[in-house]
Amino acid sequence: MKSSEVAIKIHIFALVKQYIYTLIVFILTGLSVQAQKQDELKLLSSSHIITGKDGNILFYRPVYEHVGSTLSSDSGYLHKDNIGRQFFEAFGNVIITQPDGTQIFSNKLHYEAAMQLATLTGAVRMVSTSGSVLTTDHLVYNMRSKIGNYYSGGRILSGSDTITSQRATYFENTGESYFNQKVVVRSTNVKVYTDSMKYNGNTRITDFYGPTNIKGNKGENLYTEKGRYHMATGQAYFSKNNLYTEGTKFLKGDSLFYDRQVGIGKAVKNVVFVDTLDKFYAYGGFGLYNGRNESITMTDKP
Length: 302
Fold this sequence. Notes:
Layout: H1 3-39, E1 42-45, E2 48-51, E3 57-60, E4 63-66, E5 69-72, E6 75-80, E7 86-97, E8 103-112, E9 117-127, E10 133-142, E11 147-150, E12 154-158, E13 161-165, E14 167-171, E15 176-186, E16 190-200, E17 205-208, E18 212-216, E19 221-224, E20 226-230, E21 235-240, E22 242-246, E23 249-253, E24 255-259, E25 264-275, E26 280-290, E27 295-299
Antiparallel strand pairs: 1-4, 2-3, 3-6, 4-5, 5-7, 6-7, 7-8, 8-9, 9-10, 10-11, 10-12, 11-14, 12-13, 13-15, 14-15, 15-16, 16-17, 16-18, 17-20, 18-19, 19-22, 20-21, 21-24, 22-23, 23-25, 24-25, 25-26, 26-27
């Protein structure tokens, strides 16, 4: 084969390759643009508009729709970054309404359309369809995954339980929340003080992962560093450094179970019961304390 024929074939191959590459880029670019357009916020209504000195168009009382949710405020404007991502800045009486009915209120909103990520500041209040209410001054909420975080103090009101903490992660789909730093739970019968806790608003079950005190209305106190407590039934199971105290009496063991409604406490393995008033001490492998008649039964090598 002549060298000229080889050169022509190589040239044709290069042209075909370039054409295919250009076609692929064109298709991908078109798909990307189409996806971006589908993901863009759509203005449903506004009272009037003003063009600012920076070139941004400020909408008054705008209502936007995005992926089924509506976003409204007293004023706001849209802008894009250098790669075409869309952002919405909103000010005053911000309201986000999700398709399931969950609403979020705040004074200010920064919204990233591509991520469906809302950063809300100032008097933030999130009201879920389950009835729980989250309040904080700064909330980062992913509207796609329905996961919210606050890092500088907040509160969740769920039924008769009120939980405050410095940091929290809230999962709207499951009703679960993870709380950290200065966690306090207030309910009708008890107050809980801890630094690390998981709470399920549907079941009212709390799980503890650090030093925790559960204080009852009658002065009783349950201490643990790992365990579970049911806010509705008053049943508790603890498995690390456990101690139950009531007045001058205390009961401890490697595992501790307590039922608030019937006043029964059970301790298993390395059990110690002490009544400092009566100067009574008991040791064994299993202890049963009855708070109603203030009796202790010790078995398994007492």
